[in-house]
Design brief:
By secondary structure, this protein is an alpha+beta fold. About 35% of the residues lie in helices and about 20% in strands.
C-alpha cells in the first residue's frame, strides 16, 4: 500500500521519554472520551502515540479503541497542517462503540 494513507513505524511514538516530553510540553485538548496532547515537531510529518490504561475496560475494548484511533490518524493526518507529535489519552468510561463516533469527536477537537 503506497501513498499518504499509510501508518508507518516512523509515525509512531514509542519511547516513554517522548511520551512524557509531549505530555509535559504540549498543548492539551479535552473531549468527552479523550485528552489530546499536541507538540510541534521538526520531523516534517505527524507522529501518534496512544495511552490507554487497564482501568478503561477489558482487553477487547481497549484494542478496539486503539484500532479506531490508529485508523482515524491514518485517514485524517493530512487534514492537520504542520507537523505534530500527537498523544491521545483515553479516559476511563470511553463510550465510543462505532468508528464514526470516534472520528466525529476527534475531528471536532482537532478541526
Amino acid at each position: 500500500m503506497e501513498g499518504r494513507f499509510r501508518f508507518t513505524k516512523k509515525e509512531r511514538i514509542i519511547s516513554s521519554r517522548e511520551f512524557k516530553w509531549v505530555i509535559r510540553n504540549g498543548k492539551r485538548l479535552s473531549t468527552k472520551n479523550y485528552i489530546i496532547f499536541l507538540k510541534e515537531n521538526e520531523k516534517g510529518f505527524h507522529r501518534l502515540g496512544i495511552v490507554i490504561k487497564k482501568e478503561v475496560g477489558r482487553a477487547t475494548l481497549r484494542n478496539r479503541v486503539k484500532r479506531y484511533l490508529r485508523e482515524f490518524f491514518r485517514l485524517n493526518k493530512y487534514r492537520i497542517s504542520g507537523s505534530f507529535d500527537i498523544i491521545i489519552l483515553v479516559k476511563k468510561g470511553v463510550s465510543s462503540k462505532k468508528y464514526w463516533e470516534v472520528e466525529e469527536e476527534l475531528l471536532k477537537a482537532l478541526g
